[in-house]
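Case study.
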Amino acid sequence: MSTFLLLTITGLGLGAMYFLIASGLSLIYGLMGVLNFAHGVFITVTGYTLWFTESKLGGVPVLPRFLIAALVGLIVGTVFAALVELVLIRPLYGRHIEQVLVTVGVALAVTALVTAIWGSDARVVAAPAWVGDTTTIFGAHIPNDRWLEIGTAAVVLFALEAFLRRTRYGLIVRAGVENRSMVTALGIDVRRSFTLVFAIGGLAAGIAAVLYTLYSTTVDPQQGTSLVIFAFIVVVIGGLGSIRGTAWAAVIVGLVQQYANYYASSGLGDLSVVLLLGIVLIARPSGLSRSFA
Amino acid sequence: MKRFAVPAAIVVALAFLPKLTIDIPYLFQESLNTPGTLELLALCLLFGGLALSYDLLFGFTGLLSFGHALYFAVGVYVAAIAMTSWHWSFWQSVLFTALVGFLLAVVLGAVSLRVSGIAFAMVTLAFAQAGSILALKDPYGWTGGEEGFGVDYHKLPAWTVGILNTKHLYWIALAYAAAVFAIVRFAINSSPGHVWQAIRENELRVQVLGLKPYSYKLMSFVLASLLATAGGVVYLLLVGGASTEVTTASFTLTLLLMVVIGGTGSRWGAMIGGILYTYANQRLSDLSSSHAVSQLPSILRTPLQQPLFILGVLFILVVFFVPGGLTRIGQVGLRLDRILRRPATREETA
Amino acid sequence: MALLSVHDLHVYLGESHVLQGITFDVREGGVTAILGRNGVGKTTTLRALMGLVDRRGTIEFGGTDIRQVPTHKIVRLGVGYVPEDRDVFAALTVDENLRLAERGAETRYDLVYDLFPELRDRGKQAAGTLSGGQQQMLAIGRALLNDNRVLLVDEPTKGLSPLLVTEVAVALERVSELTTVLLVEQNLGLVQRVAHDAVVLDTGRVVHAGPAKELLENKPMVHRMLGVG
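After joint prediction, the assembly is written out as follows.
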């Protein structure tokens, strides 16, 4: 029982991470039709900025040091994402394949640059001690960072929904996901929403990066890429452009991965996610979003 | 027959390379007939062929796959495992590998092609990821996990093993590249080939004409994957072992880079892209550890130490300014005009 | 001076030369109808005016050359668009659809609700669950929300029952008192009722332009150009 509980919570924690990354991907694809391969390096940029800032704040106690570094990381990551859109994506408006290709180039170039400057080995990040501790519930010892992950993802989900349903830009994004050209036909410059959506994606991915460094206490050049592939799978399962679909898919994928890895055998969890993708696509090529909208 | 004159002449000329003791400074560290240079050239030719096999899918049929590396990896791993773990003979292993590659392409292609566009790209990525995970986690102890393993060279034909036989490997790679070129050229000029190109332009129109795009796409997929699997076997001969690097998504992405830099949808573009990329990757690595570069200020030197950075930036520049790829530089003007004439189609397919 | 002036307009869709040199004027006030058989380029003409397809030629709106101007800026010059498939946002509510169309402080909700009271009643309903006729009302309503100088309306009665066609006709009549309308329509009865001028297209060219009444009373010409009667 306690194992099951542990698996469920860690599965939800994993799902939380996937959701944070996938939500940005889903919005970007839904609104702009761009498959953003550079999403992984948004994570890398925030992670390394965090580490770098921390290393410059030597004398400061751990908690404020981490928080300041996290904040700086988030700001830099968000700005970076917005710049990528402004400088590289916007000029290619209407040329979807080229936009996707450019994001691939950014992903490869930035990862290579980070590796060149700081090497391919992982760098250690100092995190507050209680994050590594566990809380015991019903006999299950659950690492505290999982609670943080689940809580943060819930807050972000809530914030995203509020943004989409209550603000004008959110309205534009929701309409644009459905029919971009009609939005321009109403006199609205959708391109501003594009930059906004990239920035939101960068912020959410950055949050995931911060949480991931708490969990792993390291940063390395490849962590963005490995997380992003599963996020892509989540986005396709959940239905491109749907935040709620993405949330459900993230939870399902996270849980399936944890259960399968434990109850079947290690490594099978990852494979079962791929299998899940195959099944969903065969049954419902447009993903799960219809059933959860 | 005249159309084959130029490519045939090039193949013959290249075949004579190992006999030449020419020194090309800067481009190559040693003269042309040395094992080191021949190995590099062989690798270039192999990836040229592999890139062309990828372009069959992407440039000619319009299918963006992120899982092409899987079939290449199958070629490498299955052949290596058959020889080393199961102790089969070389030819038995090669035949078995071809069979596995074929069946896998048919099954996975049939499933993946049920969706199109971005979803298709994602499914191919997912399947390739699955393969990568299998190779890493190594459930049966065959793949050597993260480190990979060296193939049992006793199983390889004697004339392919050893430094002195590097020129034979060069010729094999040349044969592979030439074969891929010939097969792809033949295929795209055949009637299924015309359907592939029609599918790339406008799938709806193909359906309206009463043809089923699905079976044609599957045909293209299987052919391209088989060519990749063959490339995997050649690669195994060249490097003598299997490693997980060829199973990663990054590897497929570098294929994409090759094809785009060289130019998609043309017979030569992808091949030249593959050759140039492999060459640049190798030489940039050499260059970065050279004396001249170590003299540069660190802000210039550091990025140069990672060839992928330069290649990634080059890739972005090509996408922006030379969308047809380097082989189409002369046609940039023509292409811009076509782009200006067709935005309605682009927006509508958004 | 004409409100809208089109000269030698060319549009290519893929390889197809859809508009082959369209020239016509739309005078201020009243309804100008664009007529023609299926596939001659009527919808494409409106889309070209809106900047939704790439075009060559001259387009002047209120004296300003809008050929190079992007769609959202054209709209802000005072152009309302009611597309052929209505294109209301299904996932948004009726209220949200209207709110999205707001362009400034001066919105004419009173006018819209007066013409289409159902839009007020069904404000919280998802637009995707509206009937075809209700969606059409919404599409027209949101184009009316702002004080546009011209409305481009594309086949508003397509697929509607006769009763609804009359409702649309009534709405269009009232609208035409307030704004200039450029109307693409196949329903000649409606055209006869509301239009002052008519422009007839055939295979991407203008083959006739003049007062609507004159054209529609000329049965042989109607039969020849529009394939009806």
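Observations recorded in class. The beta strands of chain C are 4-13, 16-26, 31-35, 55-61, 64-65, 79-82, 150-154, 180-184, 197-202, 205-211. The two ends of chain C are 35 Å apart (CA to CA). We will return to this complex in the next lecture.
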